[in-house]
Amino acid sequence: MAGIYIHIPFCKTRCIYCDFYSTTRSELKSRYIHALCKELQMRKEYLRGEPVETIYFGGGTPSQLAEEDFREVFETIRKYYGMEHCREITLEANPDDLTEAYAAMLQNLPFNRISMGIQTFDDSTLKLLNRRHNAAQAVNAVKHCRHAGFNNISIDLIYGLPGETDERWKRDLQQAVSLNVEHISAYHLTYEEGTRIYELLQAHRIREVDEESSVCFFSTLIDTLGSAGYEHYEISNFCRSDMYSRHNTSYWKGIPYLGCGPSAHSFNTDTREWNVASLEKYIRAIENNQRLFEQEHLDRTTCYNECIMTSIRTRWGVPLNDIEQKFGKELWQYCIDMARPHLDCGNLEIYDNNRLCLSRKGIFVSDGIISDLMFVEE
Ligand code: SF4
Question: pTM value?
Answer without folding.
Answer: 0.96
